[in-house]
Amino acid sequence: MTLPGKAPTHPGRRRPFYRDLSFQVLAGMVIGVALGYFYPGVGVDMQPLGDAFIRVIQMLIGPIIFCTVCSGIAGANDLKKVGRVAIKALFYFEVVTSLALVIGLVTINVLKPGAGMNVNMQDVPSGMVDTYVSQAHHVVSTSAFLLNVIPRTAISAFATGDILQVLFFSVLFALGLAAIGERAAPVLNVIDSISSALFWIIGLTMKVAPIAAFGAIAFTVGKFGFGTLLSLGKLILEFYLTCALFFIIVLWPIARVNGFSLLKLMRYIGAELLLVLGTSSSETVFPQLIDKLERLGCEKSVVGLVLPTAYTFNHDGTCLYFAATAIFLAQATNVPMTWHAQLVLLAVLLLTSKGAAGVSGAAIAVLAATLAATNSIPVASIALVLGIHRAMSSAFVFTNIVGNSVATIVIANWEKALDHSTLRAELNIGYKEADAPIGALKQQMNGAGQ
């Protein structure tokens, strides 16, 4: 007999493979590729399916970050712990993103995919990049970037969907709740209730994720075609190789030292990784990652602080992209880049990459800002990579998601806020998708623990 409010479970019965979200997303992508290839016009018309899904998730990201950060910080009841976690997280982010930039620079210099292209900038249509050039001027200045972290009003941060501003307000509000102690309990109860409702919506939204992946990939193939996507194949292959090297050289050893398998973690979040490959948007999987990282044994307070911060400051894949693309454009346009100039570029990237979460058109816009700041590589040269940006963005968003998941587990381990037995058990068994929406499951779990 099934208890009221509980999803029916059948011990020993395996869930049919066709009901698994990972399989459904993969199937949607395969069908989307076929449609975009054979009927490109129809494929382009499928764009609203992917855009609608992303908009729904973006609509919920701000409130979810607010609820997650408030529950994590205020629920910890220890401001010293919050500060300690934040310092460890920022230290980790800076070290790992620096390693990503170094790997990106070394690989692009060894393989040199842009050498010999001899692009004449007079032949490059600058009108294609005017929007990104104008955005670049808004993030070149360090003071402007830091000032932009502070929203003009609390509401405007949520209205514009600026993750950095939402995070700034959420942290301040959470610290205020923590400071007033027991009087914050009613507010935290309301926040937890709102969080459950938001996750319930996410649970329903994820049911159409395969359709969104289908629409996004059909549009990409229909719009650009395989020919365009492979026209700069050397750079694409070099970048995919760079991402693979980052997994092997950096993430795999970090995971091993902290007592978990990187491959098993990637399998556990497999549905999310497939989804970001199809949509090229990391925001689409933020709520699901919160749920899965908590299931893996990370304390809620650590997940609530580290993961939103990682989305802003820990762009491993994006840093690989910036380093590889910037030097590729220098090679293609015959701009000499000494090691001293590349070290200056690395220093600039360490700053500008942190603004990627708060800029519309993130990666391309911040790349334009970086080139403008170095004042050597022509900003208009980014027109050369616009056609293959989608193919590359899938790889760096994929890397970002894995990097952020690893970072959260590592910080939890450093804080002794990780249940290793739960982590091992979950990774060995693999994620078992339940029939109930995420929010309902979280509510049941929270109720069982009270």
TrEMBL record:
What are the alphabetically sorted keywords of the record? Answer: Cell membrane, Membrane, Symport, Transmembrane, Transmembrane helix, Transport
Bilayer disposition of the protein: Multi-pass membrane protein
Keyword set includes Transport: yes
Q: Gene3D superfamilies, per this entry?
A: Sodium:dicarboxylate symporter
Pfam families annotated for this entry? Answer: SDF (PF00375)
Q: Which GO terms describe its cellular component?
A: plasma membrane
> Which positions, given as ranges, span the membrane?
21-40, 52-77, 89-111, 163-185, 197-219, 239-257, 363-388, 395-414
State the Gene Ontology BP annotations: L-aspartate transmembrane transport
- What one GO molecular function would you report for this record? fumarate transmembrane transporter activity
- Organism of this sequence: Caballeronia mineralivorans PML1(12)
Q: What does this protein do?
A: Responsible for the transport of dicarboxylates such as succinate, fumarate, and malate from the periplasm across the membrane.
Q: Does the keyword Membrane apply?
A: yes
Report the superkingdom from the record: Bacteria
Matching entries from PROSITE patterns are given as: NA_DICARBOXYL_SYMP_1
Q: Which InterPro entries match?
A: Na-dicarboxylate_symporter, Na-dicarboxylate_symporter_CS, Na:dicarbo_symporter_sf
Protein name in the entry:
C4-dicarboxylate transporter
Q: Where in the cell is it found?
A: Cell membrane
Instruction: Give the principal location in a single coarse category.
Output: membrane
